Amino acid sequence: MKGLDTLDWVVIALYFLMLLGVAWWVIKQKQKNTEDYFLAGRNLGWFVVGASIFASNIGSEHVVGLAGNGAGDKMPLLIYELHAWIVLMLGWVFLPFYARSGVFTMPEFLEKRFDARSRWVLSVVSLVAYILTKVSVTIYAGGVVVSALMGIPFWVGAVATVVLTGIYTVLGGMRAVVYTETIQAIVLVLGAAVLTVMGLHAVGGWTALKTTVGADYFNMWRPNSDPDYPWLPLFITSTIVGIWYWCTDQVIVQRVLTAKNIKEGRRGSIFGALLKLMPVFLFLIPGVVALGLKMQGKIHWDSPDEAFPVLMSNLLPSGLRGLVAAGLLAALMSSLASVFNSCSTLFTLDIYKKLKPNKPEAELVRTGRVATFFVVGLGLLWIPIITRLSDGLYEYLQNVQAYISPPIAAVFLLGIFYKRINANGAIATLVGGFIIGFLKLTLEILKGNFTEGSVIYTIADINWLVFGAYFFALCIAIAVAVSMFYPAPSQAQLQGLTFGSVSAEQKKDNKASYNWKDILVSAITLLIVIYIMVSFSSLAL
C-alpha cells in the first residue's frame, strides 16, 4: 500500500481547515437552548436535511465494510443498501406523526403514544444499541482507515478519530454536525465516483471484471437452503432493520426533525433516498474491483475490510489521493459526530431532564456534552468483541442490528398503524424483546464454549437472518396479545398519533405539504431500486 505524499497532506490539511472554519462559525452562533443545540433550531432546508441523512448513514460501515463485502463474496448484503424505499417511508409515512407531536426524540414520541415507561426503556436500549453498533463500529473503522493511510498503530488511529470529531461535535452541537456533514457528503461522493471509474479502467472494464471474478459473483439472491444468506429471511430481516434504522432511530430521524416544516423534511427524506442509491456504485463496486485487481496480481490486501483504502492509495494520483483520503476520514467523522450528538440528545432529554426537570437550558446543553465522552469510552471497550461475531465489519453491524431492531420496529409500526396497541403491550414488547435479543447476542459471542449439538449451542448457532425474521413475528405477537388483556387507549391520547385518529384538518395540512414533483421523484426512486435488485440477480446475469 502506497503512503501519502506531501501534496496529499497539504490537501488533507486544507480540507480539514475548511471544516473547522465552518464548525467555528457555527460555534460562534447562539446555542443557549436545547432546541438550537440538539435540533439546529428546527430551521433547515431540504438540501441540508437530505445531505445530512446521507452523510450520517455513510460512515465506517460503508466506506470500509461495504467495500469489504464486495471484496469478500458477501453480495447478498447489498440488499441493505437498497433501502431507499424505506427512506421514502420516513418522509411519507412516519414524519407527519413525528412533526405533529412536536417531539425532540423517538423515546419522547413513545411517551406521547403510550406512557413514560416506554420512553425510559427505549432511551436505555437506544444508548446500548449505539454503543454496540454505531460508536464501536465507527471508531473501529476509523482506526483501520487512519492506521492504513498514515502507517500508525490501530488504537492511535481510533483515538485520534474520536478526539478530532469530538471537538467540533461537543462544542458546535447539531448545527455544526449537519453543515459539516453536507460538505463531507459532497467530497466523499465525488472522490468515490472517481475511484470507481479509475478502478474499472485499471481492471479492464466491467466485462473484464465479470470475467475475472465470475458472473455468478454478482448474484445477491441465494436459495433459501443457503446456510449464510437465504433470500427470504434476508429480505424480511433487512426490511425490519431498515424500518428501525431509517424510520425510528434517533440518529436519522433527528435530521428530518431539524427541518423548517413537514414539506422540507419530506423533501429532505426524498433527496436522502436518492443519495442512498449511490453506495452500491461508490463503495461496493470498488470492493469487487479490488478483488479483481488482487486476482490479476496488481494489488494485495490481507483483509477484505482493507480493500477500499488499499485501492485508493494505489490507483489515485497525488493530491486527488489526499482529497479522497480526507473525504474518507470525514465520512468516518461525520458518522461518529451524528452518533455523538444523538447520544447526548437521548441522555440529556430522555434521562437527565426526566430526573432533574428544573435544570436550566444551559446546564442541559453542558450535560449533553459530558454524556458524549462516556458513550465514547464504552464504545472503545466494546471494539474487541466485533471481530468475534463476524469476519467482516458490515456483517457484524447487520448481525447485531437484527437482534436490536425487531422489538423497536414492532412497537413503532403497531403504535402508528394499530390503535388497539396500548402502553402495556408496548412495554412488554420492548423489555421482553431486549432480553431475548441480548441473550441471543451473548450466546453467539460465547458459542465456542458450548458443546456442539447441545440445545444451547443450537440456539446460539441459529442463522441471524432466520432468527431476526422469527424474532419480529414474536414481538408482534407479544404486543398484540398483551394489549388485549388491558383497555384500549383513549381517543384523546391517540389524537394525531395514529392513522385512525388524524383529524380532517391534519389530513388537509399534510396533503398541502407535497405536490406532483415529490410523488414523481419518489416513484422514480422506487423504480431504480427494483432495477438494481433485478440487475444483481440470476435473471440478469
According to CATH, what is the class? Mainly Alpha
What share of the residues does DSSP label as strand, in percent? under 5%
Q: Could you tell me the radius of gyration in angstroms?
A: 23 Å
Low-pLDDT ranges: 37-41
Number of helices: 23
**Topology as a string of helices (H) and strands (E):** HHHHHHHHHHHHHHHHHHHHHHH
* Spatial separation of the terminal alpha carbons: 33 Å
The global form is globular
Which structural category fits the helices and strands? Answer: mainly alpha
The residue-averaged pLDDT reads 83
State the CATH superfamily name: Sodium/glucose cotransporter
Q: What is the count of structural domains?
A: 1
Named CATH topology: Sodium/glucose cotransporter
How many strands in all?
0
CATH architecture: Up-down Bundle
Q: Approximately how much helix is present in the residues?
A: over 70%
Main beta-sheet annotation = none
What does this structure look like?
- The longest helix has 50 residues, at 154-203.
- The two termini are 33 Å apart.
- Helix content is 76%, strand content 0%.
- It has one domain (6-381, 514-535): Up-down Bundle (Sodium/glucose cotransporter), CATH 1.20.1730.
- By secondary structure, it is mostly helical.
- It contains 23 helices and no strands.
- It has helices spanning 6-27, 34-39, 46-57, 60-71, 84-101, 106-113, 116-150, 154-203, 206-213, 231-248, 250-257, 262-276, 279-295, 307-315, 320-355, 361-389, 393-417, 423-445, 455-460, 464-484, 491-494, 504-511, 516-535.
- The radius of gyration is 23 Å and the shape is globular.
